Amino acid sequence: MNPAVAFIIEDDPKLGKVYETVVQQNGYQPEMIQFGNEALRELTSHTPSLILLDIHLPYVSGAEILAYIRSSPRLAHIPVIILTADVIVAKALEARGECVVTKSFGISKLRKLLTSFQLIPVPTNV
User: Fold this and answer.
1) CA torsion angle for 102, 104, 108, 114 (degrees, to 10)?
2) Within 10 Å of residue 40's Cβ, how many Cβ atoms?
3) Domains by residue range for the chain, with CATH
4) Which residues have a Cβ under 8 Å from the Cβ of 91 and sit 6 or more positions away?
């Protein structure tokens, strides 16, 4: 079994680095992805255990990526933590039952969220 992989789909390298550190501290192997089109490409062939998803991404939006994830039988069960600075978007997504964190949050909130998810190792044949 491979370690539990967390995709961090974030176009801001500084924020991505912070998320990467927190994800590692919580037992996940982080995989950074900066562009929406790269995220879609990775998701067509890989199944992470957790996804941190920025909504405002270049090339393909986080909303489109989320729709792809939720429509895929292979990916629909994966916990997605949506990251956004847009409070209106956050409220709309929370109403749909998504786990949303506004980017003005503290790292302690992200740590608490990550510990609420059970680590699920990815089988080596995925």
Assistant:
1) 30
2) 17
3) 5-116 (3.40.50.2300)
4) none
